[in-house]
Amino acid sequence: MARINIPFSEGPSPESPPASPSEAYQGHSPRLTKKGSVVSGIFDSPAFAVRKRGSVMNGTRAGRLHRLGLYQDLTLERTFFFALWIGIQLAIMLATFYQAKPGSESLDRFAKSTTQCLMFDISVIFIFMSPTLLSFLRHTFVSRFVVVDKNVHAHKVASYSAAFWIICHVAVYMYKFSFGAAKAKISLGQYLASSVIGATGLALFIMFILIFTASVPPVRRKFYEVFYYIHHLFVPCVILMFIHNGNKIFYKYVCFPATVYVLDRLFRMVRGYWGTPKIRTVIQHTRDVVELHIEKRLMSPTAGQFVYIMCPSVDPIQWHPFTLTSSPHEDFISVHVSCTGNWTRKFMKRLGGELDGSKMSPPANAIPSHPQRSNSGSSQSSDKTLSCGSTGGGSKLDALMKEEMVNPSTNLVYYMDPVTRKVSARPSEKTDSRVLHQDFNVHDVENGAAGSGNMMPPCQMSKPLPAIFVDGPYGTPTERVFDYNIGVLVGAGIGATPFASVLKYLHHCYENSYRPGKLRKIYFIWVCREFKSLEWFMDLLASLDRTSMNGYLEIRVYLTENVGINKIHNLSLHHNPHGRDAITNLHNCRTHFGRPNFKSILKFIGQKHEGNDIGLFFCGPKNMGRNLRRESQKATKDLKHLEPTKFHFHKENF
User: Fold this and answer.
1) Helices 151-184/106-128 angle, 10° precision
2) Of 14, 9, 134, which Cα lies nearest the Cα of 599?
3) Which one of 11, 233, 289, 568 is at 20 to 30 Å from 175 when CA atoms are compared?
4) Number of domains in the chain
5) Around Cβ 98, how many Cβ atoms within 10 Å?
6) Whole-number pLDDT of residue 247
7) Sign of the four-CA dihedral 100, 106, 108, 109
8) Domain that holds residue 352
9) CA separation for the pair 307, 609 (Å, rounded)
């Protein structure tokens, strides 16, 4: 695969006027204005201004093509990849034409060439879907020429190409078979069923239709399990292709790629099933999100990587990818499970989490419920479903129970800071997470004299947590953030998840006066419609906000939901330019209303850090990614008059 990054363009969009770097972070006084459904003025700044809503490229030919899905920004890398791909297909066709027997018809030559191209496309797919091999190549010189992070895009290109050749192949042979059926005076169906080639070809065609239909994005999103199981029809497809082709040519194409894929799969299977990593902690966050702390075992993850998790009691076959949200320095790995489908819903039930406000029976000694705090600050007692072990005299747990007036046989909620991992009886500001299960000793108990050395006794389990298997970790583009002097992380909605481990690791490095790689400055930009579904991430930002980090990290939050005029009025009344933000309640972070003006943002960052290679990392919707990539290319071009400054765009597949 050639070095590709596949961007698309939204086209020109209304932009706010650029600002000088000195104006970048000056707060504006609140203005109760609303233009184009975008609130402007509150907590805003010129360089980090919002972009007006509205249709993209309205009234232009490019805009009409964009709405039809035909307008694309073809970069040099993408053009090279497609040229290489088409060149290989043409070379195979020409070679097949000229190697055909003298005197053979052109239709027969074309039919054989479609067979050759189809076998090449199917064989290459095996390489694109070998993640262990690709993770290895990511850390070699090959990554300079091949963007291994785009293997999913390459897989799709190969699939579309294979679909084209399947249609051509079937059309040609159905045309030829129709003459044979007429000559034999039988129906076409009988003629196909009477031969091995016809019967296997018909079976292959049906299975290919099922695979392509189940791969359509709406089907894949809503019925992932259907997509997952039907996609594994590729195994009988490969077997039938050997039979269909008479074992003449197909093995030459598929032998090496299939061997690589099988070895890759076997390695992943052995690594995934090697031991059963224990779930150490289960933390229930709001809005159907559960955080798992899992034993590290032999893994050595880096910031930004992901793992596959399989839970036999939920489904003994399905492996689901989860981004690591823990820092590499921690002695465990953590993932956040969001209830978005059947598998995650069942998995969350097995963990004892709450779904849509309905309480599930905890599988272990867990503290399933947050004390309901009233306005006065008093709290109601929890349900009595937890029995803790003997506390012993003078232990920290005794002090916590006495403080909260909780009986030792009653539920007790521990609150955990998402960065420092310290546990306390009371939540810190903006933290609503609660520990559902914790079966190991906690050293950092934060209540009065923190770090006194006393340990919390492990809770007695009434029912075991589900066994899980973990395969990984696997690399992502986010790993490269430490290869740049300046890093810009842009997350949209749940796309902020891959950056959680990076932010935690940066905090750890700062606290220990350690410089991670070349990185000297990091900007984190979070764009979200509403905060409620990602309150666990707000907890992380709140923890980072409590540590100044001396300007090493700068955070900007953009809220894109339509805000009513009454809410704007309330926000303006509570707005304090020198205090906490009225939305996030953070000191060092201001909320901006509307979509970010990437042109102004990148221009400001480029001018402030001229002469540097700036890594730009994005995870979120495709349209926003296309716009951001386009603006990064423009910013690089516009900053050529300064000391060479270049933005390097990386997109996370999430």
Assistant:
1) 150
2) 14
3) 233
4) 3
5) 8
6) 60
7) positive
8) 277-371+381-467
9) 35
